[in-house]
């Protein structure tokens, strides 16, 4: 392909496979999660370099509380550590951080860390990085509806969209899931209505720049029809005609 690929404005990723990455190396699962943080740093940098405007990642689901207590505790500690270590770098790289999810379920220490990280990067605009933590798509739809009801506002598609955790960005153009599973696991149920999906067999710690480029190239070759016919799409954008 000689033409440069169409870079998605917003990429969302289910960062799956950390546990298996560690298990294959006879390491504790937490070692895989630590490697996952490194992979996220690399991925965020690569996205910014390629002109992606928004990266949204699934870091801890509403259901991940059901894991063994030591893994859950380790993940909370890792989040606190990653905030302390990564925020100065992210700030320098022009990344603006948002945390999306049910904060009330997190410890006061973690909640304060999230608020500080958001405030420290609020002036940045090179890449928006949304970290979904203690997040579930069902939780998000329910909390949005509850907040509209509490304000006595009508529930419409537009008002719900505006009350959800990702109201500050457009819907993801591309959703990538690493780790080989082909399911959504309660991620972006509302926002992924017309996203393109790519499932990669790579485990998240192994998802590098070349894997990202492959995903972007595959996305670039897709025809997004949004319910229309192929002919309608081609007559609106004749330059995307194949050949
Ligand atoms: C994803 O990796 C990270 C979290 C869900 C926190 P996993 O921990 O689910 O890794 P696998 O799927 O067990 O390999
Ligand atoms: C999805 O991965 C959640 C995150 C990556 C944070 P899981 O490993 O929790 O998903 P399931 O349980 O395999 O569906
Ligand atoms: Mg998993």
Q: Which regions are unreliable across 5 or more consecutive residues at pLDDT < 50? A: none
Number of helices: 8
User: Which topology does CATH recognise?
Assistant: Undecaprenyl pyrophosphate synthetase
Assign the structural class, choosing from mainly alpha, mainly beta, alpha/beta, alpha+beta, or little secondary structure.
alpha/beta
Largest sheet, described in full? 6 strands, parallel
Strand content: 5-15%
Instruction: Work out the number of β strands.
Output: 6
The N- to C-terminal Cα distance equals: 10 Å
Round the Cα radius of gyration to an integer and report it: 19 Å
CATH level-four homologous superfamily name: Decaprenyl diphosphate synthase-like
Shape: globular
Which architecture does the CATH hierarchy give at level 2?
3-Layer(aba) Sandwich
| Mean pLDDT value | 96
Strand order of the largest sheet: 3-4-2-1-5-6
Oligomer: single chain
Structural domains: how many:
1
Name of the top-level CATH class: Alpha Beta
Order of helices and strands: EHHEHEHEHHEEHH
């Amino acid at each position: 392909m000689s033409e440069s690929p169409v870079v998605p404005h917003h990429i969302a990723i289910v960062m799956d496979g950390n546990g298996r990455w560690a298990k294959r190396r006879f390491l504790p699962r937490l070692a895989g999660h630590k490697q996952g943080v490194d992979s996220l740093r690399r991925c965020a940098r690569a996205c910014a370099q390629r002109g992606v405007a928004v990266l949204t990642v699934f870091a801890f689901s509403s259901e991940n509380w059901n894991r063994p207590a030591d893994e859950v505790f380790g993940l909370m500690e890792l989040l606190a550590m990653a905030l302390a270590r990564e925020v100065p770098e992210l700030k320098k790289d022009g990344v603006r951080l948002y945390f999306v999810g049910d904060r009330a379920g997190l410890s006061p220490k973690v909640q304060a860390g999230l608020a500080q990280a958001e405030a420290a990067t609020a002036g940045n605009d090179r890449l928006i990085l949304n970290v979904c933590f203690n997040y579930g798509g069902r939780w998000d739809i329910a909390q949005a509806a509850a907040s509209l009801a509490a304000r006595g506002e009508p529930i419409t598609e537009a008002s719900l969209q505006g009350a959800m955790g990702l109201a500050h960005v457009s819907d993801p153009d591309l959703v990538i899931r690493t780790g080989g599973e082909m399911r959504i696991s309660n991620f972006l149920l509302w926002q992924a209505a017309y996203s393109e999906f790519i499932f990669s067999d790579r485990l998240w710690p192994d998802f590098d720049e070349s894997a990202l480029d492959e995903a972007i190239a595959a996305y670039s070759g897709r025809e997004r029809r949004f319910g229309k016919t192929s002919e309608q799409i081609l007559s609106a954008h004749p330059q995307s005609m194949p050949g």
